[in-house]
Amino acid sequence: MKLKPKFVNDSIGGIIGASLVFLLGLALWNPLWDIDIPIKWPEFPMAIRMTRASYDWSFELSKFARPDLQSSEVVIVYIDEDSLRSLGQSLTTPMDRSLHAKLLNKLKAEGAKAVVMDMIFSDPGPDELSDKLFTEALRSNGKVILADDYAQLPTSSNRGVASFKYQTITPYAPFEKASLTNGLDALAKEDDFLVRRHSHTPPSPGDPPSLSWVTAQTVGLKLTRNPREQAVERWMYYYGPPETIPHVNYQQALSENGVQPGFFRNRIVFIGGRPRVGALAEKRDEMRSPYSTANRLFNFMPLVEIHATQLLNLLRGDWVTRPTPVVEIGVLALAAFIFGFGFLRFRPPVATGLAVASMLVVILIAQSLFVQQRIWFPWLVIVAAQIPLALLWSVIYRSLQWY
Questions:
Q1: Cα–Cα dist 16/1, whole Å
Q2: Rounded distance, CA 161 to CA 295, Å?
Q3: Which H/E stretch holds residue 100?
Q4: What average pLDDT is seen over the chain?
Q5: What is the chain's Cα-based Rg?
Q6: Which of 16, 134, 244, 332 could form a disulfide with 240 if both were Cys (CB 3.0 to 4.6 A apart)?
Q7: Distance between CA 197 and CA 137 in Å, rounded?
């Protein structure tokens, strides 16, 4: 007769605990931060941080399983400060375009599959002969993709609220005509300066897709034959910290013995600036990397490497995906039920040990999905919020029972 009241009390306690754990998880779960949706989801700062950290930390926790890129389909030629100085170039003005012509001719001779120049050539250079040589090299190579950019221009102001339009900045007409095609070099960065998602759809009709998408089309990737694939949500899979993709600097690429024989053969070559350069007039941009470093607060990655990473994701089909909101809510509900009811069955010392073990199990499951299936979800909400609250509730509930 004494078991029935205890069963009822434990059931009510479990329901209360599971409900509290689920509501906390839902409050800290952010499904579509930075996507326009009809229903405005509350954007708690902690929810955004936990969601982003679940994605970012997955790379650090699974770095032991990083793929080997020694035989990567993509390589990079960096324009860096050492190269500019050794070639007698200024750090504050555009490079002599006859050097670009020389490099393009060499890449053609060495059998590069395609060349992507992540630099903006919107105007003629100071030397007409260099521009002519560059134009001839673009035409002769036949596989060069140039970059478009776009500028945000104010159009009007209505009651103190400014409106803007985007204007595409295309390459200088002779260069554009001589090149194979062009792509947009803009990336979908977030307010913490990390690019987490692919962005291949042009900002306005008539503009080209992203550099990586156009390059994938150029090399005949089957995925790009379906226009709908441009808008599919893909999350970036970073293969490692900055400068993981095989690379050489500009001076090495031009040198006769600067690279190993066959380094460029049948590979897609990206050319762009390394952000440590003090002032690259044609391009100097960088974004954060999800990988941490021991000697600096932020780990910055050249934009050209982010474009190359997107292309590798497309070529290898190993971008990261995220479950639908319904699935993620279901996972949060399941976690709330398991931990909200489960910890009540044990005394606080045992429940504490189980909570620590549960955290490790959730992390293991999350990283296994990330490494093997390229799936990520906001697992940190479960580990850092739901499990601790379930443990706290079990301790409070048992204390009340004893009292």
A1: 24
A2: 42
A3: helix 97-109
A4: 87
A5: 26
A6: 244
A7: 34
**What's the burial of 129, exposed, middle or buried (CB within 10 Å: 0-12/13-18/19+)?**
exposed
Lowest mean pLDDT among 74-78, 214-218, 259-263: 259-263
Paired tokens of 386? 């739901």
Amino acid at 360: L
Pull the structure tokens for residue 1.
Answer: 């007769």
Q: What is the DSSP string of 245-276?
A: S-EEEHHHHHSTTSS-TTSSTT-EEEEEE-TT
From 316, 142, 310, 76, select the one nearest 212 (Cα to Cα).
Answer: 310
Reading the block at residue 174, the tokens are: 């002779």
At a CB cut-off of 8 Å and minimum separation 6, what does 116 contact? 144, 145, 147, 183, 211, 215, 268, 269, 270, 271, 307, 308
The dihedral formed by the CA atoms of 221, 223, 229 and 235, expressed in degrees to the nearest 10: -80
In this prediction, residues 158-175 reach a mean pLDDT of 74
SS3 109: helix
* Residue 219 amino acid letter: V
Range in 86-90, 135-139, 376-380 with the lowest mean pLDDT: 86-90
CA distances to 45, 54, 194 from 354, rounded to whole Å, are: 29, 22, 35
pTM over 0.85: yes
What's the CA gap between 60 and 282, in Å, rounded? 33
Pairing of the two strands 144-158 and 161-169: antiparallel
